[in-house]
Amino acid sequence: MEEQRIGVYVCWCGSNIAKMVDVEAVAEEIGRKPNVVISKNYKYMCSDPGQDLIVKDIKDHNLDRVVVAACSPRIHELTFRKALQNAGLNPYFFEMANIREQDSWVHEDRDAATRKAVDLISAAVRRIQFHEALDKRTVTIDPATLVLGGGIAGLSAALEIADAGKKVFLVERSGKLGGRAAELDLTFPYLNSARQMMAPILQRVQNHPDIDVFLDSHVDETFGYVGNFECTVVGKDGKETGLKFGNTVVATGLKTYDPSPMENYGYGKLPNVVTSVEFEKMLLDGKIETKDGKVPGNVAIIHCVGSRNKDIHEYCSRTCCVTALKYANQVCSALPETNVYELYMDMRAFGKGCEEMYARSSRRNIMFLMFDKEGLPTVTKAPAGDTCEMVVEIDEKLSGETVEVPADLVVLMVAAEAQENARDVAHAVGVSMCGNDFFIERHPKLDPVATTTDGVYIAGGCQGPKDIPDSIAQARAAASRILATIAQGEVNVEVTTAVVNEDLCCGCQTCISVCPYTAVSYDEEKNVSTVNEVLCKGCGTCGSTCPTGAIRSRHFTDQQILSQIEGLLSKEVA
Amino acid sequence: MSETFEPKIVAFLCNWCSYTGADLAGTSRMKYAHNVRVIRVMCSGRVEPTFVIKALREGADGVLICGCHPGDCHYHEGNYKCLRRYHLLQKYLEQMGIPADRLRLEWVSASEGKQFADIVNDMTEQVRELGPAGIKPVMDRLAV
Q: Do A106 and B117 touch (CB under 8 A)?
């Protein structure tokens, strides 16, 4: 191998690394390694002066490879790759050693952490000798967008994109647009009509020249990659439409929990125990009444049915507390003679105007009773001769007493949960799910609408329970991200793909059987496998399956990883 | 009394879940045994049996592979491929006279920093009890 000129930079990260790792000693020891031309330590490598240092050294010392030992590559790998590029080096002649998140921050023995840093950097120095230049690849962006789900999030995203003059395909699995928001009577906290809010939105979407709406339709699978996706939309009558698009917004919403398994509430057994969804329908129809058509003298509203429950859903469903307040207010206004009881665990009236609504509600004729997570209320049929139909027994937390609440109508504030076909949708578009089957955003704080699949964004209830303004905000954020890529016209794609050495390939096709993207195909004439680099996402599974070593996973080659292992273990841990 | 044996453990972590989970342990300032050295791969499906054998041959006393939980693989099913290989590899190790416990496969999601720290501590103790693998000196003597 020709002589290489490696520059190594050990970052202090202020005291974050320097406190637990002897950065000077590390830099000195690494400086003695073969091919390492310079080895320096510096306070903040990611700062402008830190990057300038690298750029200057590349030029002054004719470096051809750079190792930075600092934070996680997930944070600053791109920063330093850009610095290399600025100095005229191919950005893949770079390797990072993670001596902060996976060393200085997790150990308490300075000597051990310092030795570990040396090992990690030694591994990077060995590895980088086998790095090769990889060329940036860009693909053009198809300006059309696929929006899955015709609820408030999907509608908002579709309008935002179409209003910018870009084509939108809106696919809704049910027979009508509007989703959950269209099933509401009034919205909290200002008790405005949901129908009045939705009507102009629906009308605009239906009449928009740049939005094609597909009702009673679904998409089983999408193919392709950012900027160039394809799918087939299947309609109710089996009619298939092929679509091409550059980006996807997944806005498939959520559903509500069926409380039948919770025996303490008697849902399904006691006729006048209803879910919040059923009660909303009553409000929409303008009839608050029992099954036999009587005006209920007592209405009990029970919170957290299926939410904040370790056996069902541990999370808070976010919208039910204020919805319950809305119900109480609506019953008070419609039926002034009726007693209203709110049985709650904690009143979570967060968000603009919601705490104020709670304060207003507590001045009305509503009785608030608190219960504990460990002792849920029970609903039973009232003994014969009672004036009410049911009795709700609650261990009231604030008074410490067991209270029997009379009820003629019990409303269960059921949890929000992921759609039953969430897994299918996740597979169809290539997004990941968290433990609760909601879709995972790329970063929980910094990137809440993108996913780990480029070109696929999530918005609304499919990402987690949320109210209308939050769903719309997320949908419009996703739309603006998409419009930005459309404006760019092209996007960089994965260059760390797999490649077949045809001389070594024996044509066994094992790689084809393991590829999740059908990126590998068989060339019958040559009796070898070939990789479609546009479809390949660089997981490397084919590379580790190939029996002859014919497949190379670029940037994660056998040689690179094996030499990294050698470097890691080149020294005793002691 | 002799010095405590400090095992060397090489860990292969997938980029999307487990490496991020290990980073989270750091961001959360959780403390764990310093014996583990991480190599990042894009997917646990990339972990070739050769890598594991190579690590043992070069002096590792244990090898840890971490991937996304079943169903959560960023590449759909690379972790299942890894799982299949893992079972075969354990058998192979046993046949070679290497306790299968020296190799461990665990699922660690991006939010499971605590789990990663616990796994590292647990495995360090486990391998410490097994004692040095002693493969490297033999191989060096055989010069292969």
A: yes
The answer to whether A58 touches A84, Cβ cutoff 8 Å, is yes
* Domain A6-134 class, CATH top level: alpha beta
Residue A343's CB: how many other CB atoms inside 10 A? 27
Q: B117: which residues sit within 8 A by CB, 6+ positions away?
A: A106, B25, B30, B31, B32
Which of B51, B68, B111 is nearest residue A565 as measured by Cβ atoms?
A: B51
Q: Is A101 close to B31, i.e. CB distance below 8 A?
A: no
The burial class, CB within 10 Å (0-12 / 13-18 / 19+), for A270 is middle
Contact (CB, 8 A) for A185 and A280: yes
Q: Are strands A402-407 and A390-395 parallel, antiparallel or unpaired?
A: antiparallel
Domain boundaries, chain A: 6-134, 145-253+419-491, 263-407, 498-554
Q: Fill in the amino acid letter for A338.
A: T
| Other C-beta atoms lying within 10 Å of the C-beta of residue A287 | 11
pLDDT in tens, B87-120: 999 999 999 999 999 999 999 999 899 999 999 9
- Domain A263-407: which topology? FAD/NAD(P)-binding domain (3.50.50)
Q: Evaluate whether the domain defined by B9-142 bears CATH number 3.90.1690.
A: no
In contact, A184 and A229? CB cutoff 8 Å: no
User: Which of A433, A440, A568 faces B37 most closely, judged by CB atoms?
Assistant: A568
Window 398-437 of A: residues touching B by CB (8 A cutoff) are: 423, 427, 430, 432-435
pTM of the model: 0.76
Say how far apart CA B78 and CA B68 lie, in whole Å.
9
| A145-253+419-491 and A263-407, same CATH topology | yes
Q: How far B133 CA lies from chain A's nearest CA (Å)?
A: 13
CATH level 2 (architecture), domain A145-253+419-491: 3-Layer(bba) Sandwich (3.50)
Instruction: Give the pLDDT confidence of A149-196 residue by residue, as tens digits.
Output: 999 999 999 999 999 999 999 999 999 999 999 999 999 999 999 999
CA distance A101 to A73: 10
| DSSP strands (E only) in A105-246 | 137-140, 145-148, 168-171, 186-187, 192-193, 211-214, 218-225, 228-234, 240-245
* DSSP codes, A490-531: EEEE----EEE-TTT-----HHHHH-TT--EEEETTTTEEEE
What counts of helices (H) and strands (E) characterise chain A? 14, 30
The third-level CATH classification (topology) of the domain covering A498-554 is Alpha-Beta Plaits (3.30.70)
